[in-house]
């Protein structure tokens, strides 16, 4: 496989719009839901990370800054053709490096039950009881950076 470039993209840029489509395909359509305009508008203050292959978005995630040096990782998606090939692992590593460079010390996420093993392998700790978000079981997971 060619080298994947991990980078930050601007809100509302062409690459950002590709992330919306990827997230829609991987995270939303299987559940029969979509983004609202309000949900997307709130992403203007977030940090948008992508994995690019041949200048096309094949992976993405969002970092939402919070208080007390915390940052939330959300909307992690990898194109199905590239899953289980290390793309997600490398994207998470890039996100952690980006967060550290921006002064964040603690990253957390609400992980779908199906993704818990992935996050555990990447050093995240699961805490608390299962809860439901978008009608799916999730767990709170976190990592000191």
Helical proportion, percent range: 25-40%
* Count of individual helical segments: 4
What's the arrangement of strands in the largest beta sheet? 1-2-3-4-5-7-6
CATH topology: Aminopeptidase
CATH superfamily, by name, is Gcn5-related N-acetyltransferase (GNAT)
Please state the oligomeric state of the protein chains shown. single chain
Largest sheet: 7 strands, mixed
Radius of gyration: 14 Å
Concise summary:
The protein is α+β, with helices and mostly antiparallel strands and 145 residues long.
Written account of the structure:
The chain has a single domain, classed as Aminopeptidase (3-Layer(aba) Sandwich). Helices cover 28% and strands 39% of the residues. It is built from 4 helices and 7 strands; from the N terminus they run E-H-H-E-E-E-H-E-H-E-E. The chain has helices at residues 14-28, 37-41, 87-101, 116-121; strands at 5-9, 47-53, 56-65, 70-78, 106-112, 125-133, 136-144. A 7-stranded mixed sheet has the order 1-2-3-4-5-7-6, with helices on both faces. The longest helix is centred in the N-terminal third of the chain and has 15 residues, at 14-28.
Describe the structure using short key phrases.
145 residues; alpha+beta; Aminopeptidase; seven-stranded mixed β-sheet; 4 helices; 28% helix; 39% strand; globular
Secondary structure layout plus pairing:
Layout (H helix, E strand, L loop, with lengths): L4 E5 L4 H15 L8 H5 L5 E7 L2 E10 L4 E9 L8 H15 L4 E7 L3 H6 L3 E9 L2 E9 L1
